[in-house]
Each structure stands twice: as structure tokens, then as C-alpha cells.
Amino acid sequence: MGQTGVNIVDGVLELEVGSGRWVRKAQGDTGWTDYELRFLYKCVNPGAYGPRLGAHVRRIDGNNYYQFTDEDYPTGTTRKRLKKRVGGTLTTIDENTGSAYVTNVGTWYEVWVRVYGNNLKAFWNGTEILSATPTEHAYGGIEFITWDTGSKIHLDTIFVRKFAYPEPSHGDWGAEEKTFSI
User: Fold this and answer.
1) pTM for this entry
2) Which of 18, 51, 54, 95 could form a disulfide with 145 if both were Cys (CB 3.0 to 4.6 A apart)?
3) How far apart are CA 41 and CA 161, in angstroms?
4) Is pLDDT of 2 > 50?
């Protein structure tokens, strides 16, 4: 099953929980303000209570951030959520329990988490599924977590880009963005 923690397996980032509660990997400048985090996500082993993914944006520290979570349960009840942690208190600010967004083990999903101004949005395979307007955090980095004993997820094609709304409409905007495989 591999070593508990953060590993690179077949060119993808693997987060795995053994007997501990969670594993995290953070990158980025805490001065980031308006940006979009995009990544591919696959649940390899759901652990005891189903897939568990947390993607944090505007993360200042362990007690202050916004979070997108995928918290499906073995019963097939999906729970995609936006949460905020302020001064250590975690609160759900939007939730989607639609059956169209059930996470299947072994399937890759494209996730975007967009934060700009007081807007926080999450997209699942290109469809906006969550939206909120929290005001507590104006900047911060990113972090990925998984939790619950036995949980293992893979992340691939992770990138962060500056985001402006509305996006500029001149020329061939975005043509300079490229994705490379390793």
C-alpha cells in the first residue's frame, strides 16, 4: 500500500492516510489573492467512510482557510461542500448532495476551485456545483488533505493561475497556458 504520507507514484501526487488522521501538502505564497486552483483527482482507496478530499484555498494557517471537500460515503450519498475555517471554527457555507456528483473509486475527476474578491466557487468536471461569498480571508496559499484511516487519493495536473473577473476579452487570451506531462 505504500508509505503513509505524500508520495509520487507513476508521476502523480499520492496522499495516503495510515493510522493518522490526515496528510497535507501545501505550496504557494500566502500573498496570493484572486486565483483558480485546477487539478485532477482520483480516489484510489476510500477508507472506512468513503472518498475524502480537501482542497484549501486562501490558506493562511491551519486555523484559517476556505475548503472544497468531497465527502462521499459508501452508501452513495454524495457531499460536495464549501467550508470556511475562521479562528479554528469550521463551518459549511454551501453543499451539493446531488447524485450526479457521486465519486467512483478509480475514476479521474477535474476539479476547479476559484476564489476572487468575496467569491468562492467550485466546479466538478467543468460544471459549477458550489458557490459562496465569504468575506473572512483576502489572501492565502493552497493545501490538499485526505483523512480517515485507509484513505488514499491521487492528484495530477495541478496548476494555479491568476484569476480576474470578468476576464479580459482581448486577443487570444490564455494561449500562453500550456500543460506538460512528466
Assistant:
1) 0.82
2) 54
3) 18
4) no
